[in-house]
Amino acid sequence: MDAKQQISQLIDAKKDQFITAADQIWGTPETRFATTESVKPFLEILEKEGFSIEKGVANMEHSFVATYGSGNPVIGILAEYDALGNLSQVADLGEQKAENDGGNGHGCGHNLLGTGALAGAVGVKDLMEQEKLTGTIKLFGCPAEESGYGKAFMARDGVFDCLDVALSWHPMDTSMAWGLSSLAVYQIYYNFKGISAHAAAAPEQGRSALDAAELMNIGVQFLREHIIDEGRVHYAFMDAGGESANVVQPTSSLYYFIRAPKIEQAEEIYKRVNKIAEGAALMTETELEIVFDSACANYLPNQAVTTAMYENLTEFGNMNLTSEDQEYSQRYYDSLNDATKAGLVARARQSNPTASEEEIKRLGTMPVLDQIAPLFFTDATSGSTDVGDVSWVCPTAQVLIGCEPQGTPPHSWQWVANGKSSVAHKGLLAAGKTIATTAYDLLTNPELVAKAKAEHFATVGGKKYQSAIPADVMPK
């Protein structure tokens, strides 16, 4: 039996602890940096498995770095475990129904992501013990991927500087190597302070913070015409002043996300949005406070490592789903609208140009698509991830595992409902095996590491990573 097959068996031998941890995290969904309960299963398993653990890195109480081995290469594996607000959902139910009204839920599968990464770290560690391999494995516990961007703070503070290569994965509705980029993003609060007054009897004495917020939003709407096509600016009201319409509102607050394909492009738009906010405050004679929340860089997929990871994905990423798995997932496929279902058939046709119409229809209507897409690289972007900051520090690769119902999007109730299923569990194990076998390649193939680092140097232009987060901004 070769080493990679051994890794697969080693992970299978301990699968119950990873599945139990995933379900435990699903049951205690926590957001941003407040992952008090979610981090506990990691620490318990890692301590039992013989990793040394540093807790509370980069001023984040519930972050950690777990280390096994010594010497080079140093391979990092990235784990996430935060959930999303207002996505509570009853498990295994084929319709939207909150378990706790207004509660949190794992709508992006991070209960699986984190434990899949954990399985990968433990799997390669076990083989290193057996084979007496040199090198270092580090598992990074990273809170607040969804909002707050824990890895961006960790990168800013040099936590990843020790790495030769970093690996990660994400649940999705299709399996593939992650050859896409991502959007850089700035997250900013704009707080306006005015003067309250009776809106009818003495409006001239008031200074409306709500007017300032509305004028800012109007200004940004006009700005959209004058930014790059790929730029994205969206916002939410955090404070609209109050519920009394007969009061000149003395406070208002906006939360802005400013995105672009490259971090310098996002920064340029951010500066222009700041000027609009300042203008709104000037027009309304209100005070403005700009609070920098967080930011993350665009993702740079390392082709050398991503290609190696794809090869392992094709061997170990198949989830071997049963007819019972497909039958279970049918409830989520049935929840899709007709347009989405038609789009899945179109996607199957595009991905399988030589397939028969019968095969295309079969693939396009499978509740879970147990098929690995061909490897490709593109500058196309989708969403934002703080893995981007890690990718500017060292060569980084990721895969997607199609353990979510086909056609369902991230941040949906279907993903929460699916989060403790057999399909979800098989996905995290497939991810762990893909990560562990790729880590093995890096531990035993110095040429691959050297190729990855040379590519990374060329991609970043030899520049040292510079965080977009100011030094005085702390995780919160």
Write the CATH homologous superfamily of the largest domain: Zn peptidases
Our measurement of the CA-to-CA distance between the termini, rounded to an integer number of angstroms, reads 48 Å
CATH architecture of the largest domain: 3-Layer(aba) Sandwich
Any idea of the CATH class of the largest domain? Alpha Beta
Helix content: 40-55%
SSE string, helices as H and strands as E: HHHEEEHEHEEEHEEHEHHHHHEHHH
Structural class: alpha/beta
Shape category: globular
Counting structural domains, the number is: 2
Integer-rounded radius of gyration: 24 Å
Which residue ranges are poorly predicted, with pLDDT under 50 across at least 5 consecutive positions? none
Question: Number of helical segments?
Answer: 15
Number of strands: 11
Task: Tell me about the largest β-sheet.
Answer: 7 strands, mixed
| β-strand amount | 15-25%
Q: List the strand order in the largest sheet.
A: 1-2-4-3-5-11-6
pLDDT averaged over residues: 97
CATH topology label of the largest domain: Aminopeptidase
Structure in words:
With 476 residues, this protein is of the alpha/beta class. It folds into 2 domains: 3-181 and 298-459, Zn peptidases (Aminopeptidase, 3-Layer(aba) Sandwich), CATH 3.40.630; 184-296, Alpha-Beta Plaits (2-Layer Sandwich). The chain is 41% helix and 17% strand. It has a 7-stranded mixed sheet with strand order 1-2-4-3-5-11-6, sandwiched between helices. A 4-stranded antiparallel sheet has the order 8-9-7-10. Helix 2 (15-26) packs antiparallel against helix 4 (110-131) and helix 4 crosses helix 14. It is globular and about 85 Å long. The N and C termini lie far apart (48 Å).
